[in-house]
Amino acid sequence: MVDVIFRLLGxxxxxxxxMALLSDGLVxxxxxxxxxxxxxxxxxxxxxxxxxxxxxLVIQSSTATTVTLIGFVSAxxxxxxxxxxxxxxASLGTTATGWFVAGLGLKVxxxxxxxxxxxxxxxxxxxxRGRWRHMGLACxxxxxxxxxxxxxxxxMQGLADDFDLRSLPAHxxxxxxxxxxxxxLLTTLLQSSxxxxxxxxxxxxxxxxxxxxxxAVVVGAAIGTTLTGALVTIGGTVAAKRTALxxxxxxLGSGVIAILLLPIFLGVLGWLNQHAGLEAGAMxxxxxxxxxxxxxxxxxxxxxxxxxxxxxxxxxxxxQDMARHLDASxxxxxxxxxxxxxxxxxxxxxxxxxxxxxxxxxxxxDAVRDTLQRAHDGLNEALQFIARLPPLEHDVGLRGRRVAQxxxxxxxxxxxxxxxxxxxxxxxxxGEAAPEVLERMGRLLDLVHDGIDGEASLDWQEVLERQSxxxxxxxxxxxxxLLESGTPEGGLAHALQLxxxxxxxxxxxxxxxxxxxYLLAGRQP
Length: 525
Description:
By secondary structure, the protein is mainly alpha-helical. The protein folds into two domains: 2-314, no CATH class; 335-521, Methane Monooxygenase Hydroxylase, Chain G, domain 1 (Up-down Bundle). It has helices spanning 2-30, 32-40, 45-59, 62-75, 80-93, 96-105, 110-113, 115-127, 131-162, 173-190, 193-205, 211-224, 226-232, 238-260, 262-275, 282-300, 304-314, 334-358, 366-387, 396-420, 435-452, 460-484, 492-521. Helix 5 packs across helix 14 (238-260), helix 5 (80-93) packs antiparallel against helix 16 (282-300) and helix 21 (435-452) runs antiparallel to helix 22 (460-484). The longest helix has 32 residues, at 131-162. It is elongated and about 105 Å long. It starts with a helix and ends with a helix.
């Protein structure tokens, strides 16, 4: 019994390690190309669905696809409605591993033949450069996966000699529900539905489990795999939580339908075994896994709009948060994390520009103070978020983007502080004293909005810098005229207040111009 347990636990451990290395290695080898593909092919729900299925098929992990997707949604790169299609596709894509294990892994003892792959992968990881180091991880992971599968087979064979789980209740709704809960628990412990399905396939191949029991366990594995994505969104954005909830509801709905219709599925499998040449055992279980997820796709995808609204009602949008794109789940992919911080800084810039516009002719209000405080808090969150990024010594482009964003935060904090101490317009810029300066400031603020939103001409940075300089010259001319006048209108005290307000406006314009410069440098090329 000790030998059986050791082989079983070791096999599961090797399989999990192999899956992790294979997934991480393939993601690293594909690099930005895989992420760009995921982003590019998500325009419509069906394109998003195909994108999610193919991505999961390539990296062999629905969890990796879902976690990466949540990071994209948090960063605002993918909309929540598009994300629903991706998670549904990921659920279907992950069923391919069951076919691979059932069709090849359990029929041929590949553990021995893939041992050289582990050695080759290790050498590539140690001696290779760039992307080939990641390919070394993928090769080693592929070899470990089948080595673990062979060990699991040996352990399950020994377990079948001592325990016959087929003698447990297998028929009836409650027996199916208990087996499903066992699948949920197994997937939660292993943190991988693929490993749980592979373990179930191995147990069934060894004769430890019957098809009916194994089918219910696989349904539980499909439900249990959604828990990792849910954990990732703790403390995350509303959009990220909606994505995780959509994943849970789809897999749970598909699973409940599969359990209720399990007798029908088993009848279809029996007919296919007899008349269509489908192999009994592991191949039938792989077919069942793909079938009930496909049924969920057929039922959910035509109603994806209603499904989206349902999830939105369950998780309503909270009060707008200026740092809403900052989600810790994005930190694992620095390019996505920097895109998240970039979007947050652009949102804060829009807010501060509107505050500056309002303060040109209106006094400070409690609502404006609240906006400035939220902007200040959002900037501090962005600063802490960027500080948590891993070292970027080997990526000059990402390092340059991070430095640019830090400069933008510095100027935005200075602008925020200056706006908080803006003089009352009745004591400063109101009236006819400085109409030209106010008009130039208004044009500058309009250009900031258009430039950040991509609606300005390509040379908008040069135009903005020129307007900032012209505003400074105009403000200096007004100050000189006021101070050289012997009897300024409103008295000397009012003239000094106006010159102070002009100086504050001039410096605010300078900060805004520098913020735009660094935001442009901080964008993804």
